[in-house]
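Appendix C: a fully annotated inverse folding record. The material below is reproduced so that readers can follow the format used throughout the book. The structure is listed first as tokens, followed by the designed sequence.
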């Protein structure tokens, strides 16, 4: 303890103002909230493609790139959340399961209230392009398919 006080007095250790820590906390909370909302959007969009027809129809048509991006977002969110009292000193599995459960439950609820239909009808600038230009092995029409055609294709299987 005495050694630390001497280092502070000699100028080797510099104290930071409280505002630095407050701004850092605000930034981390905002970043984790943005990651969570993006994760909700992606997972709920992925759930649109899940088809009850069977594994061999489902597997090649699944949006694997979106799943990979979602998993990266989960890891980033876990990395940020583990620094807070909610997940600090608890096994990582608990917080990962909590994140996955929360994201999955909210995504199912978003699909239940037809969230993606509403966005497509409003034709929001950046998001509408995402729906129309999303190309993957599940799309068969050139230039992408609107969300309505995706749903029609889902019902065909």
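Designed amino acids, in order:
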């Amino acid at each position: 303890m005495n050694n630390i006080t001497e280092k502070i007095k000699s100028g080797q250790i510099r104290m930071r103002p409280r505002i630095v820590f407050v701004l850092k906390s605000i930034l981390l909370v905002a970043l984790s909230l943005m990651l969570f909302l993006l994760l909700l959007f992606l997972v709920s969009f992925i759930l649109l493609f899940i088809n009850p027809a069977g594994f061999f129809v489902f597997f090649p048509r699944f949006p694997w790139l979106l799943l990979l991006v979602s998993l990266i977002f989960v890891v980033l969110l876990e990395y940020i959340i583990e620094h807070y009292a909610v997940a600090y000193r608890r096994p990582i599995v608990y917080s990962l399961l909590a994140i996955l459960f929360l994201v999955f439950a909210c995504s199912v609820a978003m699909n239940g209230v037809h969230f993606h239909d509403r966005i497509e009808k409003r034709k929001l600038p950046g998001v509408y392009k995402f729906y129309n230009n999303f190309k993957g092995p599940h799309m068969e029409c050139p230039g992408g398919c609107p969300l309505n055609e995706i749903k029609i294709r889902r019902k065909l299987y």
